[in-house]
């Protein structure tokens, strides 16, 4: 793998999930693969999980790691071509990225959207220029429109925790959610007793306009997983918060949270701002925060969130502190997702 920027860069998602789980079982099985290779992690924005999990993943593979907090410690970067740099920017991305490529065998980049110009963000102008000028393989650490390491960790977490259902006939309505014909068994052949998990991406309230990167990416990965027969995927959001539709092929879309989460096995909670009214903080209706009352509508669903999460604004503390929360487990799996991706890149260096 030369680029990991979206699910489209992955040939076989099942194989990548299996690789992450194999690395979880044997973290040091490939500890010589990255010997004398250097990973550079470049941050234009803050991070806790991505920074630490990717660094640890590289160390487990025997790599050296350098971290550059470009936003705080680097020169102010110019990204536009054809400008006379007589203002505040000191160094052009053409030189900065190329120089980092001289020191590193693989680079990671975190570059959030500015949420000012939708075309600029959705064209991934900054990320793509970095890839073009650095000249080495690049892994996205969350770009303007996607967060693929997070989504891979999320798919790993769902795959790992999904428990067989002993008696699917107890789950009224599940056959409907799987789009099965009447009388058709909801169990994939050869996997007796096991149905597909119903996964719901559920919009949550926030006080700021946040990027669509996490939900776009989660949706893209879940739609691919759904197409491969791994799960059943629904998105719930208030009117006006629809994601750009190229990220959601085949997803069921609902504007009613209670209906969408009925019988859900996983609820993935996340705020995002409007794609249509780009960068604006829109009014939203009451009743979109997941709490124990809402959880009671689900099939005792596991609740996920990429973190950081604002307690009792986006997601109720009673869920985060309760037995249904998967958020720490999910964050732990960021390590194995990153290690699987770095391993695939190292194998092709
Ligand atoms: N990397 C994980 C998510 C990052 C970002 N969250 C944030 O910016 C939270 C900011 C706040 O809560 O003030 C997002 O939603 O895309
Ligand atoms: N989930 C996630 O990417 O967390 P950080 O922003 O802390 O890296």
From TrEMBL:
> Is Glycoprotein one of the keywords?
no
Keyword Methyltransferase listed? The answer is no
Q: Which residues form the Aspartate/ornithine carbamoyltransferase Asp/Orn-binding domain?
A: 232-344
**Alphabetized Gene3D superfamilies for the sequence:** Aspartate/ornithine carbamoyltransferase
Residue ranges of domain Aspartate/ornithine carbamoyltransferase carbamoyl-P binding in the record? 9-160
Give me the ranges of the annotated region Disordered: 163-184
- Subunit text: Homotrimer.
- PANTHER family linked: ORNITHINE CARBAMOYLTRANSFERASE, MITOCHONDRIAL, ORNITHINE TRANSCARBAMYLASE, MITOCHONDRIAL
Q: What is this protein called?
A: N-succinylornithine carbamoyltransferase
What is the originating organism of this protein? Pedobacter helvus
């Amino acid at each position: 793998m030369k680029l990991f920027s979206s699910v489209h860069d992955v040939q076989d998602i099942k194989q990548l999930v299996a690789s992450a789980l194999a690395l979880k079982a044997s973290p040091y099985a490939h500890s010589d693969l990255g010997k004398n290779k250097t990973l550079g992690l470049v941050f234009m924005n803050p991070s806790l999980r991505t920074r630490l999990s990717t660094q640890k993943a590289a160390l487990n593979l025997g790599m050296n790691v350098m971290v550059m907090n470009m936003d705080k410690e680097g020169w102010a970067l110019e990204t536009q071509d054809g400008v006379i740099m007589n203002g505040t920017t000191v160094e052009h991305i053409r030189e900065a990225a190329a120089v980092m490529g001289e020191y590193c065998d693989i680079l990671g980049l975190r570059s959030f959207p500015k949420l000012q110009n939708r075309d600029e963000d959705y064209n991934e102008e900054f990320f793509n220029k970095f890839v073009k000028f650095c000249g080495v393989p690049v892994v996205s650490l969350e770009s303007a429109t996607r967060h693929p390491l997070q989504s891979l960790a999320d798919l790993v977490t769902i795959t790992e925790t999904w428990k067989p259902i002993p008696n699917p006939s107890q789950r009224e309505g599940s056959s409907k959610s799987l789009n099965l014909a009447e009388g058709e068994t909801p169990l994939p052949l050869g996997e007796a007793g096991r149905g597909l998990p119903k996964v719901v991406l559920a919009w949550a309230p926030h006080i700021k306009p946040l990027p669509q990167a996490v939900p776009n990416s989660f949706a893209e990965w879940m739609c691919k997983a759904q197409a491969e027969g791994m799960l059943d995927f629904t998105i719930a959001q208030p009117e006006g918060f629809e994601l750009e539709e190229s990220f959601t092929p085949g997803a069921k879309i609902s504007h009613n949270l209670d209906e969408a989460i009925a019988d859900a096995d996983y609820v993935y909670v996340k705020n995002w701002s409007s794609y249509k009214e780009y960068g604006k903080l829109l009014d939203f209706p009451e009743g979109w925060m997941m709490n124990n009352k809402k959880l009671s509508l689900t099939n005792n669903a596991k609740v996920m969130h990429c973190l950081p999460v604002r307690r009792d604004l986006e997601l109720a503390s009673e869920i985060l502190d309760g037995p249904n929360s998967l958020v720490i487990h999910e964050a732990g799996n960021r390590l194995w997702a990153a290690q699987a991706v770095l391993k695939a890149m190292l194998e092709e260096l």
